[in-house]
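Escalation from tier 1.

The customer reports that the assembly of two entities below gives different C-alpha cells on two consecutive runs. Tier 1 could not reproduce it. I'm attaching the input and our single run for tier 2 to review.
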Amino acid sequence: MSMQRIGNAIGRAFGERRLLLGLWLANLVLALALVAPLAGPLKQKLDHSLLARDHPFLSGALLGDLTRLGVQHGSVLGGGAALVLVLALLLQLFLAGGVVLQLLGSTPLEPALFARDCVRLFGRNLRLFGWALLGLIPMLALLGAANSLLNKAESRALFVAPFDPWRNALAAVAVVALVAWRASFDRARVFLVMRDLGASRVAAWHGLRSVLFSPLDLLAYLILVGLGWLTLLGVAWLHARVPVRGTAGALIALAVAQLVIAVRMVSAVATVSLMVEVQREAAKSSR
Amino acid sequence: MAKTIAVALLVLALLVLAPPSQATAPAQFDSQGRAIGRPLSNRVVEYVIDARLDPKTATLDGRETLTWRNQSDEPQAKLWFHLYWNAFKNERSTFYREAKASGGFRRPFLDRKQEDWGYSDVKRVAVRGGAELLPTLRFEHPDDDNRDDRTVFTVTLPAPVPAGGTITLEIAWQAHVPRLVARTGRAGNFYMLGQWFPKIGVLEPRAPGAAGPTWNCHQFHAWSEFYADFGVYDVRLTVPSEMRLGATGELVDKHDNGDGTTSYRHHQDDVHDFAWTAWKDYQVWEERFSEPDLPEVRITLLLHPEHAEARQQYLAAIRASLLRYGRWWLPFPYPHLTLVDPPPGGEEAGGMEYPTLITLGASRRPGQPRDFSIWGVTAHEFGHNYWYGILASNEFEEAWLDEGINSYGTAKLLLQEDVRVSLADVLPPPWRRLLRPLLGDLTFDEFDLLALVPQGDFDTPIETFAWKFRSARDYGLSSYRRTELILFTLERLLGSEVMARVMRTYAERWQFRHPHAQDFFAVVNQVSGRDYSWFFDQFFGGTDHLDYGVESVACADISPDEDAGIFDDGKGGHRFQKGEKKGKDALQRCEVILKRYGGAMVPVEAKVTFDDGAIEMLSWPGRERWRRWVFTRSTGVRQVELDPAGALLLDNDRANNSHTLKPDGRVSSRLLGWLTYVSQMLLSLCSVLT
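Tier 1 run:
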C-alpha cells in the first residue's frame, strides 16, 4: 500500500510539468538575484587578472585564491546572502498554498489561478509555519541538549573524530525527527487547504498528531525523501564529473546543475503529493 | 712542488665546498642512551629521578637529585625552578587566568571536579649533605603581577655556586595528576605526563640585551611552551604492573617489585626534558628505521587498539620524516623514538613533542591512502625533535623558532610526499564513499592551505613573547602559519638550494645549543652572502602587510605625425602639422603603473609581455607608493605579471598581481556559474524548512 502511494506520488509529481517549471523558474530567478551583485566585482577583479586561469575547476588551489578574495569582501557577501535567503524562505511559504491546491485538483496549472491561490493562502501558511516552528523548536532543543551532552562527555581536543558512533546515532535521530516534523508540516498544509481552515493552530496540531499516530505514512514519507536525496546525489555526482575548462563547459555544467535542481523540485512536489493522498484517504475513512 | 700545491689547493677547495652535512659526523648514542664520545651538549643539568604513580589516588611521589652547573662567570646564590603543574591548581594561576580570558584553552575547565585539578607540592629541597633549603623557598612571578601564581619558585643557597662550579640538590615532591589539560595529565586510566617534575630554569650566561647572566624562568602561560638546559636524565618510574609504559630515552632496566608494581629505568644523555606515558591497554609495536646513509632508529609505537587502521600510516609517516629530515637537516641522533597514540578520551594529550617521544592523534577510520591528520601531526611532532629538541630554542620568548620553522619543515615534507587534505576524509566511511565522487578532485595541499592564511596588517610582531600576543589566535597564527609563509617567501627569494643550505647550516651550527632569532638571521645572511635584515625587520619585527599590484595598463596609438600644431622646421622657419594618424607607422605608447598597497616593502619584479611575444622585465625596489613605466613600441602590452616567479607568497591580494590588457571572462563565468548552482541548491534546501 505504502509503495503504491510512493509510486503514485512520484507519478503525480512528474505529471505536474507546469508546476515544476514554475518552481524551477522561481528558484533560478532568485539564485540569479543572489549572484548578480557579485558579477560586477568578480569580473572587475578577475577578468584582467591571470589569477586562477590555469587552475582546474573546482580545485583546492582555486578555492584557496578565491577564499582569500572572498574574505576581503566577506561582510558584504554575507549580508547579501542572508537577505536573499530570508526572501527565499518567504517565497517558499508564498508558493506553498498554490502548490497544495494544485495537487488537490486534477486540472493543468493555470498561472493566474495559481498566483491567486498563493496570495489567498499566504497569510494562513505564514501563521501555520509559525505554529509548526513551535513543534520544531523543542525538537531542536532536545537534539541540541543531546549534542552538548556528547560534547561534555568528550574532551574537545585536536583529534576528536567528528563522527563517532554516538554522533552518527544522533545524526540519524536528527534526520528522522526533522523528516517527521516536515511530514507533519506538509500534512498540516494539506489539512488546512482541504478544510479551508482559518485556524492554522488546529491544522498544525492535526498534522503533528497524524504523523505521530501513522507510522506507516511516516515510513512512506521517509522512503520518498530518501529516494529523492539518493537521486539528487546521483545527478549531483554527474554534475561533478562535467569537465569545466571554459565558458562552454561552465554552461554545460550549469545545465546539468538544473537537473539536480529539477530532481529536488520533483522530490519536494512528490512529498506534498503523498501527504495529499494520505490526507484524502484519512478524510474518506473518517466519513 | 707546483703539483703538490695544486693538489693541496684542490683538497682545500673540496673541503670548503663540501656540503656541511658531510663535514660533521652525526651524533651517536649507545643502547643505554649514553652519548658515544664526548658530550654532545654542554650538560648543564643532571637529573636522577625516582617517581611512583598511584593511579588509585592519581598521585605521584617523586624524589630527584639534581646536579646543576653554573656556566656563567658570576656566582649564583639563588636558583630558579619551574613547578609547571601548579598552573592547574586553581583559578588564580596565570595559566588559568589567561586561558579564561581567551575563552578556554582547548577545553573550558570551569566545571571541573575537585579531583580534576592538579598540583605539585615541594616537600623537601636540600643541598646534598648540607643545608635544608625549604625555608628559603619563595614563589616568584617574573612575568606579571600575579602573586598567586605558583609555577615558578626560587631557593636561596647558604653559599653561592661559584662561576663554573656545580651543586647537587635533593628534592622531594608530591603531585596530584590533573585531568588532561595542555597535553599533560590523565583521562581515566590513561596517563601522559609532561612537565611533571620540579625543573631548574635556564641561567643564560649572556642573554641578548642583558649585561650579565640572567635567569630565564618564566611562569606557565596559557599558550606558551617551554625552555630548558641540556643534560642527562636518569629516571626510574614505578607504576602498577598491568600498565604499559613509554618514556623519553632508552629503557635500561625493568624490575618487577613483587607488590603489583613494576619499575622502569630510562636513561638519555643530551636532552632537555623527559616525558612519559602509562596505560594498560596500549598495543606495543616495535619497528626499525634503517637507511644506508642514516643511523638506525628503533621505533616504539604505543597504539590504541581501536586505531589499528592508523598503524601503517603512522609508521610510514615517521619513516618518511626520519628519512627526509635526516637528509635535509641532520641525521636523527637518538637511537630510539617512541610514538604515543592517545586513546579516545585522551586526545587532549595528542599532538605534542618531547625529546625522543611524541604524541599523535588519529581517528578510527583514517583517510586513504594518506590521512592528512596522521601524516601532518606525525611529521610535525617529530619535526619538533629538531627545532625544539636538538636546537633548544626558547619557546616562551621566540615560539616561531620552533613552531614556525617546524611548520615550514612539515609543509615541505607533506608537499614532497604529496599528502593532501581531502574534504571527504572528515566524513564517516559510509558517507565518505558516497560523497567523495561529489567532491571530485577537491583536495588541498599545503600551498592551497597557506593561501587561506589571513594576511592584512597583523596585531603583533612575530618576535614577541608568547603570552604578550593579543590572543591565542594571534599567537597561533603568528608562530605557526605566518612564519611558515614568511619562510616559504624567503625560500623563493633565496632559491631552494640556498634555503636548503641555510636550514642545514642552522641545524648543524646550533645543534645541542640554544639558538635565538638573530642566530637564524645570521645564518641566512651568511649562507646567502647577502644582508636580509630588511626582510627580517619587516616580517618578524613588524606588522605591516605586503601587497603590491599592477594598478593599470593602458595603451594608445601614437604616430610622429599625429601631433597637431606648429613645429620648427630645422631651417629657422615653422611648419604646420595637421595631426593625422598614419595607421602603418603608428606606434603604441603603453603606460604601466605598479603600486604598493601595503606597508611592507620588498623589491619586486614585473614581467611585461608585448603583443609580438617580446618580454621585458622590470625591477622596482618597491619603496615608493607607485611607479610608472612607459613603453613606446610597434606593438602594445599584452599583459603585466608582477612577481612572475610567485616569490611573494605573503602578498595579500594576488588577484591584482597581474593585468591583461584584454579581459578574459573564463574564470569569472565559471565561478558565476558555480555560484549560481550553489545558490540554487541553498534555495532549494530552504524548502526543506518551509
